[in-house]
Specification:
The structure holds 2 protein chains of 2 kinds. By secondary structure, chain A is mostly beta strands. In chain A, a hairpin with a 4-residue loop joins strand 1 and strand 2. The longest helix of chain B has 26 residues.
Chain lengths: 212, 353
């Protein structure tokens, strides 16, 4: 038994090379696609608001999501987030200085799968996520394209449910990831922000007792 | 006796008419003077200076009533001569006060008088509209606008406009917010100078921050209600203390991007940071899922949801007011918030009349 496991030096070298080769392969890229997205906000008093929108994802790492009155464009290759305000035709371009991988907040544990199911005809893996605040969120991931097609997330005074429908694979029109020409553009660089207060209370903790 | 009383009554009526026409509009009754104790007998009312009360009333006054805020100085002789006594409240019996009269008091000893203060009853309520940034003359504040008319209908009075003009980009932005501070000082002066009575302030957008700073730092009297419509909850303009406001409420729309952008850079950056991370980790989760690294995918999905919630929390900080009630609307734009459908949804939370 022990002999069978002994590896020759050439074998080790070949395995090592193979390992390097595997690591050198480009990471998988999420497929380009677009979909309709319906966002439902449920406020603390029970009122619901449904906001239709659209979702675009390019293969090179750009994502755009249109909501009721504006759009958010994230470009992970450039490290930017762009807000398009449809009412004022204003674009705010934020360059995020600190790399996201450096910020993994404490207390966030992996989503826990609990069921498989179907969403719009696709197989989905359903998982629950318990946040550091104890609230339970939920995500469904389409197993063929790795896309989160449904989520229910609790935040301050609000439950946000987002469902992607009518997913169509293919590269969206590149123009959707650009700022429209008639928009005024403001550039901002987001300073490195401390990880300790990534989620706020409604007011800074030091001021909570002072609220009237 | 009856005839005499009738003549006396006629003379009194004429004297009152003469006094009233000489010194005050007929509706103004700051001081009323009575023939007998306890505000009984014949009476006349006066306002301002009365150099001689007339032969019929000379040395006849025994009690008097004063309107709120009014005072009276009574004189022994005509033309404000001789001894005098100033009273600031109603008096049922002038014998309480030692004076030049035959009995050593002020009973039946008044020949002239000066009434001050008082005046017409103050308006019970003044409604002030305050503009937002970039336009001191927004249509919603004009009398022909549906919002103006809705507000007027609610309060039963015509609102008046306060306009702060240093409301351009530099005036409403970090780091100094100088236009908002200047506007607050000016608004406070405006409020302080209003006639007595309840003051209702309705604002839009950064006009709410003008009102918050005004009532937090500058006013010398309370505002009955402060209603802010789509006011950016800017943490640079919030503090630990309170406002001199009896009741406050804020109407915010979750979809109002202008309100978000008007908040502090810290809040905006926090949102951008969290939103970016949410997209980043969602993408990483997808990649890990495709590559079959399911544990990573599940962890990254959790990070994506965490940052999504964090982004929403920061977005919410620009809309949840620190004081009073916040009424959250779903899909309205910044401009929608100063339109009647929002106004008509406010009465209960804002305790409107």
């Amino acid at each position: 038994m022990r002999r069978q496991l002994q590896l020759s030096a050439p074998t080790v070298a070949v395995l090592a090379l193979c390992t390097v080769a595997v690591h050198a392969q480009p990471a998988a890229t999420p497929p380009a696609l677009q979909a309709e997205v319906e966002t439902t906000y449920v406020f603390a008093d029970g009122r619901q608001v449904r906001v239709p929108g659209h979702y675009y994802r390019s293969q090179d790492g750009r994502v755009r999501e249109d909501t009721g009155r504006g759009s958010v464009i994230a470009d992970v290759s450039k490290g930017t987030l762009t807000l398009l305000n449809a009412d004022s035709k204003q674009a705010l371009v934020f360059t995020v200085r600190e790399a996201a991988p450096n910020r993994k907040p404490k207390g966030v544990s992996a989503a826990v799968p609990y069921a498989r199911g179907k969403h719009e005809g696709r197989d989905v893996s359903k998982a629950r996520v318990k946040g550091p605040d104890g609230k339970e969120n939920e995500v469904w991931t389409a197993t063929d394209i790795g896309l989160m097609v449904f989520s229910r997330i609790e935040s301050a005074g609000l439950t946000t449910t987002k469902a992607l429908r009518k997913v169509v694979q293919g590269e969206p029109d590149p123009a959707v990831f650009n700022v429209p020409e008639d928009y005024a553009v403001e550039h901002h660089t987001v300073p490195a922000l401390d990880a300790g207060s990534m989620r706020p209370g409604l007011v800074p903790p030091s001021m909570k007792d002072e609220r009237r | 006796m009856g005839k005499l009383r009738g003549i006396r009554g006629l003379i009194t009526f004429c004297a009152v008419l003469a006094l009233a026409s000489a010194v005050a509009p007929a509706a103004a009754q700051d001081a009323t003077f009575y023939e007998h104790l306890d505000y009984s007998g014949a009476s006349f009312s006066a306002q301002g200076d009365v150099a001689f009360v007339g032969f019929d009333w000379n040395d006849q006054i025994t009690s008097l009533t004063l309107s709120p805020g009014a005072s009276v100085t009574i004189y022994e002789h005509a033309d404000f001569g001789g001894a005098s006594l100033t009273l600031s409240s109603s008096t049922a019996d002038l014998r309480w006060f030692p004076g030049p009269g035959g009995d050593g008091t002020w009973n039946d000893a008044v020949s002239s008088l000066r009434v001050s203060g008082g005046g017409p009853p103050p308006p019970s309520r003044t409604v002030v509209l305050v503009n937002g940034s970039f336009n001191p003359y927004p249509p919603w504040m004009e009398p022909d606008a549906p919002e103006y008319q809705a507000i007027a209908s609610t309060y039963g009075v015509q609102p008046i406009q306060f306009r702060w003009t240093d409301s351009d980009f530099a005036g409403v932005n970090f780091p100094f917010y100088s236009g908002i501070w200047n506007g607050a000082s000016a608004l406070a002066g405006f409020i302080n100078a209003l006639p007595p009575g309840e003051i209702e302030v309705i604002t839009h957008s950064h006009g709410g921050n003008v009102a918050i700073l005004a009532t937090g730092f500058y006013t010398n009297r309370p505002v009955t209600r402060l209603i802010n419509l789509a006011t950016p909850v800017n943490w640079d303009l919030r503090w630990n203390g309170g406002l001199w406001v009896n009741h406050m409420c804020t109407a915010s729309s979750h979809e109002d991007w202008v309100q978000f952008i008007g908040s502090s850079p810290y809040q905006v950056y926090r949102f951008a940071d969290a939103a970016y991370d949410s997209f980043y980790w969602a993408r990483e989760s997808t990649i890990a899922f495709i590559e079959g690294r399911y544990e990573d995918a599940l962890y990254y999905a959790a990070l994506a949801t965490y940052y999504f919630a964090a982004g929403h929390d920061w977005w919410h900080t620009t809309k949840e007011e620190w004081w009073g009630w916040t009424i959250m609307f779903g899909g309205g734009s910044h401009g929608d918030m100063h339109e009647p459908p929002v106004w008509h949804a406010l009465p209960m939370a804002c305790k409107l009349p």
